[in-house]
Amino acid sequence: MDKVKAAGIYAEKAGKVLMVQEKHEPANGLWCVPLGHVDNLESFQQAAIREGKEESGYDFELEGLAREMVISGREFKGMPEDFDKQIEIKIFKGKVAGGQLSFDPSDMLSAAWIPKDEIKFLPLRGDWLKPLFD
What we know:
Layout: E1 3-10, E2 12-13, E3 16-22, E4 31-32, E5 35-37, H1 44-56, E6 58-72, H2 73-76, E7 86-99, E8 108-115
Parallel strand pairs: 1-7
Antiparallel strand pairs: 1-5, 2-3, 3-4, 3-8, 6-7
């Protein structure tokens, strides 16, 4: 089975976690940490920093691996062409190093710092995210 690589950023400050609300099906309206596909010739770390910037407007410094997993493409709720593939995900702890909160409304519905204890009430992109918030 083909494997697709994805990377993301888990950033927390003052008891709040940086979250983005997806705009595109099948994840439309669901919340996730900034996350996306690893491009060719790009490391997981480079992809996490790039996706963090693209989806939140922030520059990040990585502080280690927060979580890694392999899930199905259907569970990932990504591109339809990836539904029958395995998705290898690495989410890194990140510290904001610059920039300001912003997002492209053609790509995301929202980006916000959400109190960690309120995340359990959000519709998440998948249960695979829940261990990040324990």
